[in-house]
Amino acid sequence: MPSFLLEPPQAEPLSLGEAKAFLRVEHGDEDDVIAALVTAARMHVEAQTRRALITQVWRLVRDAWPADGGLTVVPAPVQAVVAARVVDAAGAAHAIDVQSFVVDAASARLVVPPWSLPPPGRAIAGIEIDVRVGHGDAPADVPEPLRHAVRLLVAHWYDNRGLVAIGQSVALMPGTVAALLSQYRMRFI
Asked: What is the mean pLDDT of residues 44-60?
């Protein structure tokens, strides 16, 4: 089932100054372009790894409680459950105590005994769980290989704006970035 971004990160894993220093850009003419590239690179790294780099709040929507009591959280890593609701047959949302959930950060799951929770009255999207995810609030909280992947993507996209080589796009992710991301990809069974 889907996840929806409720609160985006309040910072990027790479500041504008850090990005400009890495690109060796000393003027301010392209600050907006570079800032947009940093955001796009963060979002690309997050999509490739299924992780939130900087703290964000997402809503998980489910149809039913899983029989085994484990809910996978994407994006990871999960920090905390912020709110939870179950929707009854009339469409009214009822709050669930967030203390009912145990955060298993190692496996990016929420664990809850399903028999202890009210069943949703709505067959589709009857459960909503808001979670805080991410490595932390500050760029320094993000693992350095992921920050470096953002740097490399920003540099690659900055240097290859709009260029297409014969038979392939240079906008593709460079192999060095893929290698940095490979150990951080979340794999779910």
From this structure: 96
